[in-house]
Specification:
Length: about 425
């Protein structure tokens, strides 16, 4: 069979040109829409521009970071088949997004994209935490309850002094950072418990985190039921705390069709950069991949596997805590049921983004794509009025297909 290939530089240069052409087409499309008054197309031209700029920018980045001048891109039928196997569900979900846009053109507004990104930001941080446990061929079912715990703890200490149903009536005015740190530390204690059970007793992460999940929910519910609150939803949140999740940056400087950038987006970007650095540029990150790839080989090579596993669960729990705090700030409230189902969404988003359940494989860029696609689908289904029960069915199908595709990659090995 004839092998086909193209030089790495030529391949990505071609995509740089394609991206530039798409972006230019989007700009032309915008002026045509403005002059002809095509209202039903809303901000579609700008979506085209964004896609074009992303393709061109990514291609330029790949060319600039390529250190092997003789590198080639495999263009054989086998390579193309593997590409569709690896990205098939992303393509299918992309098609679903296009269908949603056709059904409801209002979905093609930049404000909708802004709201989706804001909603995805806390979930992104949670997924970045859970990806560490997946990279060592584990999981973490306690993530959802840690999100709820962090939300309840932080919100309970951030109520207005004159709120009628104040959780702590005599609590003095606290700096915002204090409840945030306490909420994250509480989650890290349970993360330490997860790591201890897995590392010390070689307990499967599924069982260990399932047990911890039940403990956390019970502890959070007991805290939530303390008088005078008595399991009432926590409200009356201070404005300096809710600002962490609701502030719109550059609201008066950006066009009205955007209306400002939610502060949650740059916060999520910051954590994305930090986690990318940890996974790719630190010894700890290399050890995570090594343990997930081959635990026995990691032990032989001198890696302290138990301590690394404990560190993984503690770091993951800190990220869940951050996600819970941001959710409480975004919604200006909390209950002990906050975060329910978030762990399954995060696992599904990671798998859709290319993180293998077999461990040792996964990139931050893939997690970003997975979370965004999953959030867009969920938001889009709500947007077009799909029944909530059918949404659960569709979500389950996506998870099943994503896992089946992931496992099929390794069936022959």
């Amino acid at each position: 069979m004839e092998e086909k290939s193209m030089s790495f530089k030529k391949f990505y240069t071609s995509f740089t040109i394609i991206g530039a052409v798409i972006a230019i087409f989007g700009v032309i499309f915008h002026f045509l829409q403005t002059s002809n008054g095509w209202k039903k197309l809303y901000d579609l031209p700008w979506f085209i521009v964004i896609i074009g700029v992303f393709i061109a920018g990514y291609s330029i980045f790949k060319n600039l970071t390529n250190k092997n001048e003789d590198a080639v891109v495999d263009m054989s039928s086998r390579a193309i088949k593997m590409f569709f196997l690896n990205n098939g569900i992303k393509i299918a979900l992309g098609i679903m997004v296009i269908i949603i846009m056709i059904i409801e053109p209002n979905f093609m507004k930049l404000k909708v994209l802004r709201d989706i990104l804001a909603q995805a930001s806390p979930r992104m941080i949670i997924a970045l935490g859970i990806c560490f446990t997946l990279l060592i061929a584990g999981t973490d079912l306690s993530a959802c309850r840690m999100v709820g715990l962090a939300a309840v703890i932080s919100a309970s200490m951030m109520q207005n002094p004159d709120y009628a149903n104040r959780f702590f009536p005599d609590l003095p005015h606290l700096p915002v950072i204090v409840p945030i740190i306490l909420a994250i530390l509480a989650c890290m204690i349970f993360g330490l418990l997860n790591g201890f059970l897995v590392a010390r007793f070689d307990m499967h992460p599924f069982i260990a985190t399932l047990a911890t999940q039940v403990i956390i929910y019970g502890a959070c519910s007991l805290y939530f039921d303390m008088p005078p609150n008595n399991s009432q939803p926590i409200g009356g949140i201070r404005s300096d705390f809710s600002a962490i999740g609701q502030t719109l940056l550059w609201k008066d400087k950006l066009p009205s069709n955007i209306g400002g950038i939610p502060i949650l987006i740059p916060i999520a970007l910051l954590f994305i950069i930090v986690i990318w650095f940890v996974l790719n540029k630190t010894v700890f990150g290399k050890n995570v991949y090594a343990i997930g790839g081959n635990r026995e080989a990691a032990v032989v090579s001198g890696i302290n596997v138990p301590m690394t596993i404990v560190g993984i669960f503690v770091l993951a729990s800190a990220l869940y805590g951050v996600g819970g705090v941001l959710e409480a700030a975004r919604t200006a409230g909390a209950t002990n049921n906050y975060g329910v189902g978030y762990e399954l969404d995060a696992i599904a988003a990671c798998v859709v983004g290319g993180v293998s359940l077999n461990g040792g494989v996964g990139k931050v860029s893939g997690i970003i794509i997975g979370v965004l696609i999953f959030t867009i689908i969920q938001y889009g289904l709500q947007f077009i009025g799909v029944n909530a029960m059918w949404q659960q069915v569709i979500k389950g199908v996506i998870i099943a297909v994503a896992v089946a595709i992931d496992l099929s990659k390794y069936r022959g090995k």
